[in-house]
Design a protein that fits this description.
Radius of gyration: 19 Å
Mean pLDDT: 93
Shape: globular
Length: 210
């Protein structure tokens, strides 16, 4: 899809903000690098910053938030012509498709830096949980609006989504533990592995040791 010069300029500014923020937060600590420091390094005003992000936490979480935003956007179009027989399968394939669209060079490095920051910064982790909750509600709204679904009080759709989210976090943990700049393709492989384990996890016997 063609983009205007203004849109390309806005995207370059946004990407520079993310890259610079992650570098500053990693070097000086999240609380040690102020919003003024970030805006000064990128040579923009705070007004421009807030046209792109709501907070320092928001910019720090941008790499994975962008993935889930892309997943939500993909679901809105895919759900009208679902190729998957189950909601669980639909959510899995939509997330994998969104990951395939994360082709920007440097995205995986941003994800790794963002994850390390979140692990040691409670405010980033809490902000991420809030984003996850909002996005989950939006995904469920799409499912209930466009599919023949049970009533909203039925737990199955929510639990299917929760399983996909849990599998993603496990895959992200396994992927980031690799070190040495793991690739987007490796993250996709780890995500498929986590998805494949879900049926066995549900059927895992609770057999006592003999």
């Amino acid at each position: 899809m063609a983009t205007t010069l203004r849109e390309r300029k806005k995207e370059r500014t946004r990407r520079l903000l993310v890259d610079t923020a992650l570098e500053l937060f990693t070097e000086h600590g999240f609380d040690g690098a102020t919003l003024d420091d970030l805006c000064g390094a990128v040579e923009i005003s705070q007004r421009t910053f807030f046209r792109n992000f709501d907070s320092k936490e928001d910019v720090a979480l941008a790499p994975t938030n962008d993935l889930w935003t892309s997943c939500l956007e993909g679901l809105r179009s895919r759900v009208r012509r679902p190729e998957d027989a189950t909601v669980l399968g639909l959510l899995q394939s939509t997330l994998l498709d969104a990951l395939e669209r994360m082709t920007d060079e440097g995205w995986t490095r941003r994800v790794a830096l963002s994850r390390r920051l979140a692990e040691r910064t409670p405010s980033i982790d809490a902000h991420g949980r809030q984003f996850c909750d909002r996005t989950s509600r939006a995904i469920l709204d799409v499912l209930h609006r466009d599919l023949e679904m049970p009533e909203p009080g039925d737990l199955r759709a929510r639990l299917a989504l929760d399983m996909v989210v849990a599998a993603f976090h496990q895959a992200l943990s396994d992927w980031s533990a690799r070190g040495d700049a793991p690739t987007r393709e490796e993250l996709a492989d780890d995500l498929r592995t986590a998805f494949a384990a879900l049926p066995d996890a549900l059927a895992l016997p609770a057999a006592p040791r003999s």
